[in-house]
Amino acid sequence: MVGTSDMMRLRRGVDELVTIDQTRGGHGELERRALTGAEEALAMQTRAASQRVRLRLFAVAADYTGTAAWSALDARQFDRTQSYLEKSLYLAGMAQDPVALFDVWNMYAIYARQKLDFHQAVDAANAAQVTAICRRDPMFSSLAHARAAIGHSHLGARQAALRAVGYAHEALEKADTAQPRPSWMGFYGHAELSAMTAIVRDRIGDPAGAEAASHQALSHIPKDFRRNRALATTQLALGQLHQRDVDQACATAERVFALMAGDPLPGRMRSLLGDFYRDLISLAPKAPIAREWGDRYRSEWSRA
Fold this sequence. Notes:
By secondary structure, this protein is mostly helical. Helix content is 78%, strand content 0%. It contains 15 helices and no strands. α1 (4-24) runs antiparallel to α2, α8 (138-154) packs parallel to α10 (190-203) and α13 packs parallel to α15 (288-303). The longest helix has 24 residues, at 51-74.
């Protein structure tokens, strides 16, 4: 029979993987450990005695599988991401767990954006918005609105994007930050919303607003959220570049490599840096600093 200590151990395992992700980002070992945890939780179904325990095991298996999906997504391994998301969605449904269901739709929104399917990104964000947890906790509602805003901004829907950002800020102001939430939700708050707002502002043609939002994000993102700080720093560099401040943008982007020193850059981060490099070459093709930065970028890429 599955006991409380078994459930606590499984939950601690999820929390440990979330901490690793926050520091390093998605990678193969994290993905493998997450899948092992999911397999263990599902294997315990044969020992479970009550329906309540069975549902909890499905929920924790969904969390582990979602962690594997996130790791694959952060590494831009899209085929595996799709497979894990489908399984996690099934497990969340079996668990009848609205938080796990929200987590899957939240990742689907990011996955669709990475695959440049921005209509699907908005649809996934909307699906997250109608989960039961969003009706109970405005923190989750805020995140869903922010995901929708990013999707709208990529579609060129300026007013829809700004409206969704406004909803995200309004909902976050209503959230009780002291309320217990799953560890994977620990990344989200005013700092992360500022980082997401920077993406929206840059996409709708407001690079000055994007730069300001990025500075606000970086002033509050915790130091141990190394990957998130590096992504926000890259977004800051993009905002500066799109204002034609080439030297400052390159200096800012250079800080990303120092932030992630000691670990390969996750695929999602390399892709964003690739966007910076393409825009850099487009705006300043003959600038010596552009060539120097490109050499550094290719060197870091080869380490991945």
